Amino acid sequence: MADANSGPDPARLTGHQRAAILLMYLERNAAKKVLQHLSVSEVEQIGRAMVELDIIEPNVVEAVVGEFVRELARSSMVPKSGKEFALGVLPELIGGRRGLQIGGALRREFSTEFEEYCAARPARALAAILRDEHPQTRAVALILMGTATAARVLVEFDEAERLDTSIRMARLESVPASVADDVEDSIRKALDREDADRWMIAGVDRAAQVLGQLARPVNEPLLGQIGEADPALSETLRRRMVRFEDLITLDDRSVQSLLRSVERPTLLAALRGADEGLRLMFLRNMSSRASEDLREEMDLMAPLPRSQVKTAQEEIVQVTLRLAEEGSVRLAASGDEMV
Prior knowledge:
The protein is an all-alpha fold. The chain has 4 domains: about 10-75, Orthogonal Bundle (Annexin V, domain 1), CATH 1.10.220; about 110-195, Annexin V, domain 1; about 200-240, Up-down Bundle (Single alpha-helices involved in coiled-coils or other helix-helix interfaces); about 245-339, Flagellar motor switch protein FliG, alpha-alpha superhelical domain (Annexin V, domain 1, Orthogonal Bundle), CATH 1.10.220.30. About 75% of the residues lie in helices and about 0% in strands. It is built from 20 helices and no strands. Helix 9 crosses helix 12, helix 14 packs antiparallel against helix 15 and helix 17 (about 265-270) packs across helix 20. Mean pLDDT is about 80; it is low at about 1-5 and about 335-339.
């Protein structure tokens, strides 16, 4: 059984967490060279994984690095497939301009990498980029990015643009290889710039937290007005106005009411990922025996996936909100004064 203080379980680490640990283990110059080969979105995902990691024990680092070395050795011993050889190695063996021409032709005919790259992007972003291009370039780009993605992008154009682009696509018979390469390259650069300049915000969560800072006489009418325009959004904001960390403001009587309404496995999972202050708040509102049993059980628990802990905490928040509506729990917004 895993020690609760031994850090993450290597077997449960995500791919981004493994990459994060490996990069932190590497010497800085080596890590820098690896990062140069990753996209902006990949680096951001690895960065988030680094933030999520707490204590990384030597046994975890050893397991991750060992697996990486084994995979590296395995991949170097297994011959490449014919497709991989033709697309990656053959152009290098030929070399020069002829190698580039042959490699480009093979890649456009057999590789789906650019189609997959575009498919992972929002259609609206692709359409915005293509609107600044020449109409003929726009048609070539849609042909290159695959039928499903092209259809999503075409819907974003206005009627006149759709008509013109569709006719141009239908009349295409051949495109110079250099033009196709230039179109792909320009789209990639434009999308990478957009990814780098975009700050992804969890707008609903941020808005809910802001509203949660308002006193009830202010936020209740505001939520009512939001509900008139968008009932689903209003309900979502109400549910997310209180976070698990906010329960630290509950009085002891409210905590005791909450404990009677929460299943033990849910409480264990939620407290497993809680800070010490919240743990103590719940434990001091239990009997000495129950508190001691819960502490022992948490100490013996195997590490839990962060998603499981978050789900348990959100479940307790929803129970708290229900009890607050019933009057069993006294839940104050941050702007309220408790007297």
